[in-house]
């Protein structure tokens, strides 16, 4: 009886990988625990072990194949004594059949018609922003754990050490409070540090420095001292990493006067906003998301693309309901907008892009047009950006509203580990669709 | 106009006397104004510790940087910042060093290489290391003086900063002002302060922080080490805070007699005065002139501060960001 050996997920957010090498050939006997293949992801090269004894049957995915989706059958394992059977045609070449939309490049809106678009991966957009800004201004330095020789825990700082040297690409030990303070002091003294947190949850160790030292010093000094620093790193849910590594800081950070906060969704915004953040004379909290790093978006050749803070991006026009959110929730809104279109509801989709400054005007304009609004975010509901927007809309556009604003947010719980519970804790497209129906009295 | 430019230029040890006296008289005045309700919030006085910053600043050169805690009036005066701007800030006036928005604990003067004035115990230590990082990146041989107290030395971020400073070989001089009483609680002593820095491979020295000449000597050795690119250095200056931790602290953890005894036998200003006179380095008459001059500077600062306007309401929303 043959069992399928499937492409493993070697990290929580891994969606695909390259099958670099087979260490065994068809017909070889394998023991449980034998290393049978080498798999490369964008983060690491890992060995893959057999989970049961047997003999390798048909190899379904040859070595050297790139972009093999997780869970794709890559070989057959025959129970000891079995003879290999030819693989059924249905199991051939599964590589070419990715799940719909999930990994296909998302088309970004707003580019001029006729401009050539090519896929741009978020991680590379971020790396390009860092590279270009470090080339442009030698005051820009990068500080973080594993950012230099290891090229970043998520490969965002790839190539920076080679190009700019260890004086500007600085590896630091696990000392979040101190290396945040280190960056702040360097910023006071005229450098433009980009400080990476391996996970934004670790920034809690440095919260005093971010809030008390970075955000307030311009004010406390009567304008004498500037703190041009960027704190960046993966934020929010990543894929079964549990409560202490998965939480959204957008609303927390946006609460603090003196900080600017960005949470881009699209690749071009990741680049353009990071460049703007580095050029800003104020401290910026720049939130990324592990699930978005490997996502590709169709964008033109960007060059020196700088996206100003405080300007939302309209992904879809629609006259019936305004969906407004940020970060990975933009993907959820777009999915919901597709579903709503099938029901004959035209949803407008607004990506806030930055949470401080926050583009209230675009949201209000949308609400005055559609008279209905659903906010969507992955963070917790109480004191969230959605509840803030609901208050602003009530205050500024009360007479235009045909229904109370609906807020879709992450569940009001620490992030659970179990796959089923985690999926329930994050807003899904169907939650957004249901909220849109509710505000439309449908 | 800086404090140092006022009056007759005293050089050498007489200058040290004058600088310490300016801090003493300034702090006494600040305490008075606090008692009158003119200074708000928290106010931490430097009385008794004057020899530390004065001795350290005696070896500072143009381009050096400094950062300290909430007990920072003395450091500002020693850096040459206008006493009038400091006093006006204590009173929350528009003419204050931070335009009335910072107060006693939050003053800054980049042109004097003075980076605060930090209210969170220990937070200035990694920031100071960052200022040193900027100097190293620019390949200067400037020293960043990072001052903190014995209480701050217990903060985890101080240990983290030793680690970073040693690893990155940062040009910073840590100055631990051990004023014998870590805050109002007088907690039992932890491990010896310098052993902690030594554990990270940082060179250290301990010095009598009540003796300004000894401080200057230790500072000279330390600053040369740092300027030569040999990495960080830590000095523990053993000193004594005469007043409570802040104006709100009655200092009941020690006897009045103990404070009086230190004052009578180890006062940094009195002992330098006696030595200068004994050595024939200065006359009573010159010292009296200095006393008068310092008193006048402090009175003028206080008078000007009391007459200065409060910030305009429009100032509330200014300086939050670069745009506003």
TrEMBL record, chain A:
Cofactor(s) listed in the protein's UniProt record: thiamine diphosphate; (R)-lipoate
The keyword Oxidoreductase is assigned to this record: yes
Recorded catalytic activity of this chain's protein: N(6)-[(R)-lipoyl]-L-lysyl-[protein] + pyruvate + H(+) = N(6)-[(R)-S(8)-acetyldihydrolipoyl]-L-lysyl-[protein] + CO2
Enzyme class: oxidoreductase
Top-level taxon: Bacteria
GO biological process: pyruvate decarboxylation to acetyl-CoA
Record key words, sorted: Lipoyl, Oxidoreductase, Pyruvate, Thiamine pyrophosphate
Signal sequence interval, chain numbering: none
Molecular function in Gene Ontology: pyruvate dehydrogenase (acetyl-transferring) activity
Transmembrane segments: none
SUPFAM superfamilies (UniProt xref): Single hybrid motif, Thiamin diphosphate-binding fold (THDP-binding), TK C-terminal domain-like
Function: The pyruvate dehydrogenase complex catalyzes the overall conversion of pyruvate to acetyl-CoA and CO(2). It contains multiple copies of three enzymatic components: pyruvate dehydrogenase (E1), dihydrolipoamide acetyltransferase (E2) and lipoamide dehydrogenase (E3). The pyruvate dehydrogenase complex catalyzes the overall conversion of pyruvate to acetyl-CoA and CO2.
Name the UniProt record assigns to this protein: Pyruvate dehydrogenase E1 component subunit beta
Organism: Roseivivax halodurans JCM 10272
The organism's taxonomic lineage, starting at the top: Bacteria, Pseudomonadati, Pseudomonadota, Alphaproteobacteria, Rhodobacterales
From TrEMBL, chain B:
GO biological process terms, semicolon-separated: pyruvate decarboxylation to acetyl-CoA
Catalysed reaction equations from the record: N(6)-[(R)-lipoyl]-L-lysyl-[protein] + pyruvate + H(+) = N(6)-[(R)-S(8)-acetyldihydrolipoyl]-L-lysyl-[protein] + CO2
Taxonomic lineage from the root: Bacteria, Pseudomonadati, Pseudomonadota, Alphaproteobacteria, Rhodobacterales
Annotated gene: pdhA
Domain Dehydrogenase E1 component: 19-314
Transmembrane segment boundaries: none
Signal peptide (UniProt feature, chain positions): none
Cofactor(s) needed by this chain: thiamine diphosphate
Function: The pyruvate dehydrogenase complex catalyzes the overall conversion of pyruvate to acetyl-CoA and CO(2). It contains multiple copies of three enzymatic components: pyruvate dehydrogenase (E1), dihydrolipoamide acetyltransferase (E2) and lipoamide dehydrogenase (E3).
Protein name: Pyruvate dehydrogenase E1 component subunit alpha
Keywords (A to Z) from UniProt: Oxidoreductase, Pyruvate, Thiamine pyrophosphate
Composition bias, Basic and acidic residues: 314-324
Residue segments, region Disordered: 305-324
Class of this enzyme: oxidoreductase
């Amino acid at each position: 009886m043959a069992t399928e050996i499937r492409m493993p997920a070697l990290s929580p957010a891994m969606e695909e990988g390259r099958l670099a090498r087979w260490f065994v050939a068809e017909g070889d006997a394998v023991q449980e625990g034998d290393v049978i293949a080498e798999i490369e992801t964008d983060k690491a090269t890992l060995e893959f072990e057999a989970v049961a004894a047997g003999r390798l049957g048909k190899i379904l995915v040859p070595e050297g194949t790139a972009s093999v989706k997780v869970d794709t059958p890559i070989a057959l394992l025959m129970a000891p004594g079995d003879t290999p059977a030819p693989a059924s045609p249905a199991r051939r070449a599964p590589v070419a059949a990715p799940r719909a939309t999930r990994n296909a490049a998302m088309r970004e809106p707003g580019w001029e018609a006729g401009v050539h678009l090519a896929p741009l991966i978020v991680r590379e957009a971020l790396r390009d922003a860092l590279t270009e800004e470090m080339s442009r201004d030698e005051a820009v330095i990068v500080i973080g754990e594993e950012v230099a020789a290891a090229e970043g825990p998520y490969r965002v700082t790839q190539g920076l050490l080679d190009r700019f040297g260890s004086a500007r690409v600085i590896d630091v030990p696990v000392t979040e409070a101190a290396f945040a303070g280190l960056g702040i002091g360097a910023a006071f003294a005229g450098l433009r540090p980009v400080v990476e947190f391996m996970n934004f949850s670790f920034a809690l160790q440095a919260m005093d420095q971010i809030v008390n030292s970075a955000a307030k010093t311009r004010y406390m000094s009567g304008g004498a001292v500037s703190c041009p620093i960027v704190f960046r790193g993966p934020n929010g849910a990543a894929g079964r990493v549990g409560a202490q590594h998965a939480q959204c800081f957008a609303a927390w950070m946006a609460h603090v006067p003196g900080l600017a906060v960005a949470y881009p969704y699209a690749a071009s915004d990741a680049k353009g906003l990071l460049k703007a953040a580095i050029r800003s004379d104020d401290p910026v909290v720049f939130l990324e998301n592990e699930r978005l790093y490997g996502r590709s978006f169709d964008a033109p050749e960007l060059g020196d693309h700088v996206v100003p803070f405080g300007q939302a991006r309209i992904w879809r026009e629609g006259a019936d309901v305004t969906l407004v959110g940020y970060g990975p929730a933009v993907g959820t809104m777009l999915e919901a907008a597709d579903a709503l279109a099938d029901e004959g509801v035209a949803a407008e989709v607004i990506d806030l892009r930055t949470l401080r400054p926050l583009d209230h005007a675009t949201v209000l304009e949308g609400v005055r047009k559609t008279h209905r609004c659903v906010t969507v975010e992955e963070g917790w509901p109480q004191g969230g950006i959605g509840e803030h927007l609901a208050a602003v809309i009530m205050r500024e556009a009360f007479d235009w509203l045909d229904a109370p604003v609906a807020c879709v947010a992450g569940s009001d719980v620490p992030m659970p580990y179990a796959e089923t519970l985690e999926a329930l804790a994050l807003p899904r497209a169907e939650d957004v669709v249901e909220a849109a129906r509710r505000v439309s009295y449908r | 106009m800086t404090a140092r430019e006022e009056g007759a230029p005293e050089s050498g040890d007489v200058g040290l006397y004058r600088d310490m006296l300016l801090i003493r008289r300034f702090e006494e005045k600040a305490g008075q104004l606090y008692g009158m309700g003119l200074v708000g919030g928290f106010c931490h006085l430097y009385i008794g510790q004057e020899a530390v910053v004065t001795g350290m600043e005696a070896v500072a050169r143009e381009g050096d940087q400094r950062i300290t805690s909430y007990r920072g009036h003395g450091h500002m005066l020693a850096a040459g910042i206008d006493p009038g701007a400091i006093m006006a800030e204590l009173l929350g006036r528009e003419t204050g060093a931070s335009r009335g928005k910072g107060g006693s604990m939050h003053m800054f003067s980049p042109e004097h290489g003075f980076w605060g004035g930090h209210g969170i115990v220990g937070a200035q230590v990694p920031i100071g290391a960052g200022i040193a990082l900027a100097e190293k990146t620019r390949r200067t041989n400037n020293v960043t003086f990072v001052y903190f107290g014995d209480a701050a030395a217990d903060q985890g971020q101080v240990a983290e900063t030793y680690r970073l400073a040693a690893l990155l070989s940062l040009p910073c001089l840590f100055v631990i002002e051990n004023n014998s009483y870590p805050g109002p609680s007088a907690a039992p002593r932890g491990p010896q302060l310098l052993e902690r820095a030594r554990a990270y491979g940082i060179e250290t020295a301990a010095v009598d922080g009540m003796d300004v000449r000894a401080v200057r000597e230790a500072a000279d050795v330390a600053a040369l080490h740092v300027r030569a690119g040999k990495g960080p250095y830590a000095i523990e200056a053993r000193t004594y805070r005469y007043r409570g931790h802040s104006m709100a602290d009655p200092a009941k953890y020690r006897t009045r007699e103990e404070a009086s005894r230190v004052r009578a036998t180890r006062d940094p200003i009195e002992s330098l005065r006696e030595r200068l006179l004994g050595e024939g380095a200065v006359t009573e008459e010159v010292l009296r002139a200095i006393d008068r001059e310092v008193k006048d500077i402090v009175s003028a600062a206080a008078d000007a501060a009391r007459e200065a306007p409060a910030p305009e309401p429009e100032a509330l929303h200014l300086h939050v960001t670069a745009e506003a």
